[in-house]
Amino acid sequence: MSVLLDVLVFAVIAVTSFIGYKRGFVRYVIRMLGTVACVVVALIVSDMAAGPAYNNIVAPRLESSLLGRFENFSITDSVRGALKDMGVDVKLDDKQLKKALSDPGSIPSALERTVKSSGGSDKQAAELKEKTESFFDEGFGSTVAKAAGVEDHESLGKRLELSTGKVYDLVRAFASGDGNKAGVHYLVYNILDTVMTTVIRYVIFILLFIILEIIVSIVFRVAGVLDHLPMISGANKWLGLAAGFLKGVLYIVLLAAIFSAIVKSDTIIDPAVFEDSKVFSIFFGFFYK
What we know:
Elements: H1 2-23, H2 25-69, H3 75-85, H4 94-101, H5 107-117, H6 122-138, H7 140-147, H8 153-160, H9 164-175, H10 180-223, H11 234-264, H12 272-275, H13 280-287
Helix pairs in contact: 1-2, 1-11, 2-10, 2-11, 4-5, 5-6, 7-8, 9-10, 11-13
């Protein structure tokens, strides 16, 4: 993949440089103005359309799909099992545990109070609170990703970097009366929405940009905008080559910015895919810091 990215860099720059040389500087600059207009329009439209596209088209289908995957998921079993793996045996029945997980405040504190009220020692309660905080901070994202059927759930769990507030809200949703339905709904509309909207935004941008470029090219050709512009000298061609080279670099910069934004949005995409390339990594590293 890293090698293909470098090949893409050279291919794009080579093609745009050649086209610039053939058209000449004057023609190419005019055509570039059309490209700039395409970029601006595509950015504006994709930014406006991404949210509605996710909420009205993608999210309902994603929620329906995830509901099937979470059919056998139990928030109490997951928490109990995770804490047991950490060396803590939760001596609470499912009803007590579920009530604590539904607490509107700090869930670890609620578990601590529940253990004390059930006759547990202060030491046991404090240990449970500490381990629960650790689980929610470091392991709950992986647990949810695993339940969703993500193969590399450990990696995704670490990359999600969920805030404590969102983790507690997600736990409360799964522990609510609607159970997994409420949990999946919160997951889709309050956690995955940022990731998916970012991806959708740039997918729309790329598709719209390509379509607009084709339309502008057709309009220029039909209207004969470039037909009467002179190609007066070799210098004009070489300047066109330079302009084409710069346009190719701008395309790569645009791609690097898009990939960087998608990776930063906590998707499962590993940034090493881009960082391991020899040439593309230079552009990618400028945005991904």
